[in-house]
Specification:
This protein is of the alpha+beta class. It is built from 4 helices and 11 strands; from the N terminus they run E-H-H-E-E-E-E-E-E-H-H-E-E-E-E. It is 17% helix and 41% strand. Helix 1 runs antiparallel to helix 3. It is globular, with a radius of gyration of 18 Å.
């Protein structure tokens, strides 16, 4: 059973096509998961006081239709059984008629806020209710392709990490990486076709003052891989499949 939060897609989060930006969608999902945990007494504040925090490791998303700004949407989320050290959480976005707009499968790691070490699920001190997985076959674990031998880089750019990119963990918020990835795409093609599939892997956190070097690699028609490095070390990688 999904915990659900209804909201109106805010106009200040719109893109040039009057759709909700992917970064805003990811932010709404993050807020909904925080509220779900708070509803069972496991608020972000309580976790921080106990010296731990959840960090998003991977997100896989299928977009059937981007929510239009001003549209009332319902975001549902549920925690499903852990896989190794990772906590799995599903998200769905529906419109007011129950039409499925987005399905999203994410994995998270529990981290010690002092030494940044990953904690095993059995270190989580609160009771955790797991629901049966519903999106494994629909979305599942999207594997980001390896770089092709005939690597065609269509754009490179740098992003200096400023204050506005940071969250309360003092590193770049997960939703900001969606902006980084989509900014690297060919604008006209992306604007005309929109998103159908998006996958994002986080490899190393970025903090204030860092410089992320980003490259977009064309894999095929409407398919791109975006890689980001920080001081020569992998920072993130993303896969994008555009709509028809």
């Amino acid at each position: 059973m999904y915990f659900r939060k209804e909201m109106k897609a805010a106009y200040y989060n719109s893109d040039q096509n009057n759709n909700l930006k992917l970064s805003a969608i990811m932010g709404y999902m993050q807020q909904t998961s925080s509220e779900q945990l708070a509803s069972v007494g496991q608020s972000v504040e309580r976790m921080l006081s106990d010296g731990m925090v959840f960090i998003l490791a991977k997100t896989n998303m299928k977009i059937y239709r981007a929510p239009a700004c001003g549209e009332v949407i319902s975001i549902g989320t549920a925690a499903t059984p852990t896989i190794g050290p990772r906590f799995i959480r599903e998200f769905v976005v529906d419109n007011s008629d129950g039409e499925r707009l987005i399905s999203c499968y994410t994995s998270w790691v529990l981290t010690d806020i002092d030494n940044h070490k990953i904690l095993r699920p059995n270190a989580y001190p609160y009771p955790f209710r797991f629901e049966e997985p519903a999106l494994e076959e629909e979305v599942g674990d999207i594997e980001i392709p390896k770089d092709p031998l005939d690597r065609l880089v269509v754009r490179t750019m740098d992003r200096d990490v400023w204050y506005s990119f940071l969250d309360n963990n003092a590193h770049v918020n997960n939703s900001v990486y969606a902006d980084f990835a989509l900014d690297a795409l060919p604008y006209q093609e992306f604007s005309a076709r929109g998103l159908a599939v998006f996958a994002l892997n986080f490899q190393k956190e970025a903090k204030y003052g860092d410089k992320i070097e980003i490259a977009a690699i064309r894999l095929g028609d409407g398919e791109y891989k975006i890689v980001g490095t920080n001081a020569g070390n992998p920072c993130f990688e993303a896969y994008v499949k555009l709509g028809e």
